[in-house]
Amino acid sequence: MFYVDLAISGIVFGCMYALMAVGLTLVYGMLRILHIAHAAVFALGAYVTVLVANASGSILIGFIAALIATPLCGVAIYRLLYQPLLHYRPDVPMIASIGLLVLMQDGFRILFGEQGVTFLKNPLAIETVDIAGITLNLAQIAVLIVTIIIFLALHLFTTQTRIGVAWRATVSNPRIAASFGVDAIRVRYLNFAIGSALAGVAGGLIALLNNFVDPTIGYVVSYKALAIIVLGGLGSVRGTLIASLFLGVIESYGTIFIGSYLNRDAIAFLALILILMARPQGFTGARTA
Amino acid sequence: MSAYTISLLSIVGINVILAVSLNIISGFCGQISLGHGAFYGAGAYAAALVAIATRNLPLALIAGMLVGSVLGLIVGFASLRVRSDFLAVTTIGINFLFTGFVRKQGWLGAEMGISSIPASGLGASGNMIMIELFAAATIALSLYVNASWMGFAFRAVAEDEDAAATLAINGISYKLVAFALGTALAGLAGALYAYFTQFINVDAFDFITSVMLMAMVVIGGIGSTVGVAIAAIVLTLLPETFRFINEYRLLVFGGLLVLFISLAPGGLASLFHGTRTRLRR
To answer: Where are the domains of chain A?
Structure first.
């Protein structure tokens, strides 16, 4: 059962990566910016969830607070940082984004302390259930269920509603979408709001899973999320989902089998480099951007 | 000169070599590399091992350059496969692969690093003068390359590879030359660093280092040798000047980076000449 357990913990991590990376890949599809500060939004979601849950005594209220705070933060980043830089080479907004990530992460460290914060009570991380001989804790199950619900909702939203279709059209080709009367500015705000909300939920979930948030949380996922969206073929939601689950499982097995030669991050990036050399456009990318 | 000034000037010189060499790859030839720290580190480790084995300064410096440029050539070949943002993320991967690999290698000192690297035999100030001479030589080389036919070819490849091909400029070989040259200089900087500190640890070559170097290039003005050298000097001295805010060093650095790019997206160089047009996409 050891190998099944590894696969499941890999898939749980993969779900987290997927929630985090979808916002990133959508921003790339729309603006051609590597939005590295997305990881700081993710960290914000984690901190807000823990702090509000502790203050209010309810984990649910913590998540709702994160769902309010992160979209506001994401939209503000677009409006104040990226919009004035849209006419410059893509590495200019990317460096600005890295600067913002460093600024926000260090801000969290100073505000909330070097040691990080934990939930006062987090029953989900402790209670476990057995399903067919596999032991899962409730937090892992929560991650799986929330991820499935969110991706189903996202699918319905982007296929069944008018604004959702406009959103998809803009991500795949901004110019043609605009010529069909799509308001690109409104779609961009929507994009940053929803992408940031998903990152916020991912942050809350990882806090739940680890029962712990510390100031380095954003750095670790930021580079991995970049690897994932590249692997997924930049701008493709389906590719990002596949790449997230793939990387989660690879890391999970990799740390067991080659963990004495390379650490977890190096394994993820080794997989990325090998796959990119074979398929330079990622898993699904038809577009080479 | 006090020991403090000497060590500060040495670090400034090393950072100038690193930033100017990254500018050859990313500025002149347009290949965005966010893994310069890996080549810097590879050079430092190679030089440290050779220095301990042979105690020969020129040999160690050459070893640093060689290992840096061999690794650079390998990544250069990768850059032929993937373009623009895919390349940027691949080079981030190279950096993590390097640090992740070294951390697990006992013969490279793993997490502890390599200590007891023999001194260069030039003394602290002699060492500093050697570093500054190499820094000056790097700037001169960069200016020379930029003014030469090769600089023209680099710019052509950076602007539009397909258009460059119609002028019979072979993008492949120029990209490889840019990577080999830039990473050889990074390896040299690593070797100088190994002699300067006599103790190396993989933390000095992590991704944050690569980001700092890229920040120097962007703030200096992508493609401008003088702007990048000035930015390297200023960004190295800045945290020292603001030592009283040491606790908030990263906060201030991040804030300045965001503010500077928002106010002058073309970098220092654009404040003096009209290079803004080149930066527009």
So the answer is: 16-216
